[in-house]
Write a structure and sequence with these properties.
The complex is a heterodimer of chains A (about 150) and B (about 500). Chain A is built from 5 helices and no strands. Chain A has about 150 residues and is an all-alpha fold. Chain B contains 21 helices and 2 strands. Classes of the chains: A mainly alpha (about 150), B mainly alpha (about 500).
């Protein structure tokens, strides 16, 4: 069982890296979700799969019976699922808001915080490149989208 | 419950209360301010009590819910942890006062108070966590609050920065989680004191080394070390001034703290011998790239952001060498850096207010207009560069001395050369913003007068007084750092405090 799950962990990890190398922000976020699931699977597998009955101490006994599952990884995974759910929800909202403000989800066009013109030859030019851009207009389009529209 | 139990629990409970109460009071800004200021002052008092308690009685541990270690959740305070909580509380109070001044209502509408409480909850919890999964949870608490804080202001470049910050940091914490899972698989425990006993006995050193490397990567990304620092210069300069100050003070330092903790207690140098030299190379590369990145920029906040990276390298020297003196240097440097770097970001906000811009080319003539602002900038700036008699000098002295004593003179030489380049960047800000004449196209400034002036410059002056105190009356601080270094390198006190304490 464990080798199979370890192999699945590897496949999930590969898929998430592939997705995160994409230029589309939505794919990057999907990659993060897959990565979170891969992490959960790795914790679950690390705890060893040695039993399938619920880890409850029966009435009158003082210890778990043989064949009970390991409860600790399940508790850890449960915590991690809750946390990654919350963070994923936040990142999706962030992407939605970013799309509204930046008018793009193409990561190579997201150059608003880090302009490409640095380092500039003179302090004045550097300051001009570093100054924040004017606020977004509703009709503003990123340069590449404008090119595509022209073509 | 003993006094130590109360103090440890309160250090987590107070910011938790601040976060919860401020969320409940979301529209009542006046009440929120009272709650935040009261909680910050209370946290400062309690954390000082904890530090004195730890100084008097050694490492203290408390088992939450009376589940005995290593089965339950343990809160531990050694000298490093307690000192970090104190300095975190100082920052909490300073930033809370400063944030009353500049655009307070707008920030408060966007959730400043609950998010600040949540951030401090994660930070305090991380400093006191005795369990590595618990440390992961505190990291996530800190992270989700920082995501919210970064977009306060809702400018276009902030959303761009927040996306990069969120994605890269989420990736790093997920690597942390995978490492935690594998460590559990290899040792069967996640309590740090228990791990300290079980990791060196593990029969598979290759697996332990691989797990240690995963921890190095994830905490390294958090601490913004070379080559994993890219999220920091992409994000910090877009944040509002108080947000940038608390980020610069705490977030990367929690990563550094986790590196120090994990590579002294869980993976001591004997267990993974290759980590030390590797961290030494990383430390040198971090110092150099950070300071060179700062030299290329002409925006005050970007310069300061790159200097955070450069200074992280100094703290890593302690992890790289692992001697008690080197660890003491790291502790002293972390404390000094938190105070000074947050102060510089606060001054940057005041400069923006007085001069109308963060761009050096648009600034000028501030010395003539406002000499007090110049003095309050000069103190942390010279301290950052490491000039005596300010706190940075002692931090750099101990770091360099530990390098020479451990036979790693090259590391000490890099540290000193980087100090000179730091001075160059600080002088650049000084000559451009304060000394040169104001340019003709200087933007209109909001001005720094009235209550705003006191609210902004008051915390700045207090933090400047802290760095001067550390510089002029170094003895108690150095003694504390040396004792903390001994405790970290010794390990036994920590393990005994956690595993030896029976449930009460």
């Amino acid at each position: 069982m464990e080798p199979l799950l370890a192999l699945l962990f590897g496949v999930l990890l590969g898929a998430s890296v592939y997705l995160m190398l994409s230029r589309s922000l939505i794919r990057v976020i999907l990659g993060l979700i897959v990565l979170g699931n891969a992490a959960n699977l790795s914790i679950f597998t690390s705890g060893r799969i040695f039993g399938f009955s619920p880890p409850l101490v029966p009435e009158g006994a003082t210890a778990l019976l043989d064949g009970a599952a390991n409860p600790l990884p399940q508790a850890l995974v449960l915590t991690a699922i809750v946390i990654s759910f919350g963070l994923t929800a936040f990142v999706l909202v962030l992407a939605w808001a970013a799309n509204g403000q930046l008018r793009t989800l193409d990561t190579s066009e997201m150059r608003f915080a880090e302009p490409p013109g640095l380092p500039a030859p003179t302090p004045e030019e550097a300051a001009a490149a570093e100054a924040p851009l004017p606020p977004a207009r509703a009709d503003a389009q990123p340069p590449r989208a404008a090119e595509r529209a022209a073509a | 419950m003993t006094l130590a139990d109360w103090l440890l629990a309160l250090c987590v409970a107070i910011p938790l209360f601040a976060c919860a109460a401020n969320s409940a009071l979301h529209a009542q800004h006046r009440a929120q301010r009272v709650v935040t200021l009261a909680c910050a002052a209370l946290l400062l008092a309690v954390s000082f009590a904890l530090l004195f308690h730890v100084q008097a009685n050694g490492v203290v541990a408390s088992q939450m819910g009376d589940w005995r270690a290593p089965f339950g959740i343990t809160l531990v305070a050694d000298l490093l942890g307690a000192a970090m909580v104190v300095i975190g509380a100082v920052m909490y109070l300073a930033v809370a006062v400063y944030a009353l001044a500049d655009g307070a209502e707008e920030r408060e509408r966007q959730g400043w108070h609950p998010l600040l409480g949540g951030l401090m909850l994660g930070v305090s919890g991380a400093f006191l966590a005795g369990d590595i999964f618990n440390l992961y949870v505190w990291f996530e608490v800190m992270l989700i609050s920082s995501f919210g804080m970064l977009v306060i202001g809702q400018a276009r470049e902030q959303f761009d920065a927040a996306v990069k910050y969120a994605v890269l940091n989420l990736g790093a914490t997920t690597v942390f989680l995978i490492a935690v899972g594998m460590l559990y698989g290899a040792t069967g425990t996640l309590n740090m004191a228990d791990l300290a006993e079980k990791v060196p006995q593990n029969e598979n050193p290759g697996l332990i080394a691989a797990i240690a490397f995963l921890f190095l990567c994830s905490f390294g990304a958090k601490a913004a070390v070379f080559p994993l620092f890219f999220w920091l210069p992409a994000a910090y300069h877009t944040a509002a001034a108080p947000v940038a100050a608390i980020f610069a003070a705490m977030l990367t330092k929690v990563g550094v703290y986790a590196l120090i903790r994990v590579f002294t207690i869980v993976f001591p140098p004997e267990a993974v011998p290759m980590i030390g030299p590797m961290v030494g190379l990383i430390a040198a590369a971090t110092m150099v790239t950070g300071v060179l990145g700062a030299a290329a920029h002409w925006d005050i906040r970007r310069i300061l952001s790159f200097h955070i990276i450069s200074q992280i390298g100094y703290m890593l020297v302690g992890v790289a060498l692992g001697t008690p003196l080197a660890l003491a240097g790291a502790v002293l440097y972390v404390v000094h850096h938190i105070v000074v770097k947050a102060n510089l970001f606060l001054v940057a906000g005041a400069i923006n207010r007085a001069g109308g811009s963060f761009q050096l080319a648009h600034l000028g003539g501030l010395w003539k207009r406002d000499p007090w602002l110049g003095i309050l900038f000069a103190i942390p700036a010279l301290s950052l560069a490491g000039l005596p008699p300010l706190s940075g000098f002692w931090g750099k002295l101990v770091v360099a001395q530990s390098g020479f004593e451990a036979g790693q003179a090259w590391l000490a030489a890099v540290a000193l050369a980087v100090g000179l380049l730091t001075l160059y960047s600080m002088l650049k800000i000084w000559t451009e913003a304060f000394w040169k004449n104001a340019p003709d196209d200087a933007p209109a400034a909001l001005g720094l007068a009235g209550a705003t002036r006191w609210l902004m410059l008051g915390p700045v002056a207090c933090l400047a007084a802290v760095t001067m105190t550390i510089g002029l009356f170094t003895e108690p601080f150095a003694a504390l750092a040396l004792a903390a270094g001994e405790q970290l390198a010794g390990r036994e006190a920590y393990i005994a405090a956690v595993l030896g304490s029976a449930p009460r």
